[in-house]
Amino acid sequence: MTDRTAANGSGHGAGGAAELRRQIAETRNQLGNTVEELAAKADLRGRARARAADLRDRAGAMTVQLRSTAAQASHTVQNRARGAGHTVQDRARGAGHAVQDRATGAGHAVQDRAKGAGHALQDKARETGHTLQHRAADAGHTVERRVPGPLRPPVEFAKRHPRPVMIVAAAGATVVTAVVLTRRRTGC
Q1: Is 91 helix (H, G, I), strand (E, B) or coil?
Q2: What does the pLDDT average to over 63-85?
Q3: Better pLDDT: 9 or 140
Q4: Distances (CA, A) of 56 to 49, 50, 61, 147
Q5: Alpha-carbon distance values, 29 to 33, 71, 159 (Å)
């Protein structure tokens, strides 16, 4: 008998045998669990396989996590690079517009200066033309006063009709040039 049965005061009766069977079954169960635990501890290959499987699972989980982190980092870098590219494009566009505006302003300034210079040249040319006209008129008046009487009608005709006079003068210059060139060739 065990201490428990003695404490219950039930000696050998029906309850004692059933209790004893229950205790035996419980002890067998405990011994079976203990033997399984000891066998599991003694099974080094099994423990190594279990550990390897656990490490593979962990490595797989870490691989998935690292790939996910790398993908997120890649997307972050792509987004930042895209944003930086847009920023650079915007700045370049702004700089291009600024250069274009400056060039346009410089072009307008040059045009304004050229207009001013053109007006100044026109004014000087007009003034020079007037001066030459006055001198020619003065020279013409001087020539008229000094021309002998019989030559005055042809001079008056030349003044009234300058085109035929110019044609005759050009023809005369051509004849003179031809004579001079002929003399040079012949050595006379």
Answers
A1: helix
A2: 89
A3: 140
A4: 10, 10, 8, 129
A5: 6, 52, 151
Amino acid of residue 182: T
The single-letter DSSP state of residue 112 is H
Structure tokens, 14: 């029906």
In this structure, the number of other CB atoms found within 10 A of the CB of residue 147 comes to 14
Looking up tokens 């110019």, which residue turns up?
166
What 3-state DSSP class applies to 9?
coil
Range in 22-31, 37-46, 70-79, 94-103 the model is least confident about: 37-46
For residues 96, 98, 101, 105, the Cα torsion angle rounded to the nearest 10 degrees is: -130
SS3 of residue 148 by DSSP:
coil
Averaged pLDDT score across all residues of the chain: 82
Rounded to an integer, what distance in angstroms lies between the CA atom of residue 119 and that of residue 106? 20
Among the listed residues 1, 31, 30, the one whose alpha carbon sits nearest the alpha carbon of residue 15: 1
Q: What is the pTM of this model?
A: 0.34
Identify whether the C-beta of residue 5 lies closer than 8 Å to the C-beta of residue 20: yes
Q: How far apart are CA 67 and CA 62, in angstroms?
A: 8
Start-to-end Cα distance in the chain: 173
Letter for the amino acid at 174?
T
List the one residue out of 30, 29, 4 whose CA is nearest residue 18. Answer: 4
Decide: 147 and 155 in contact? Cβ < 8 Å: yes
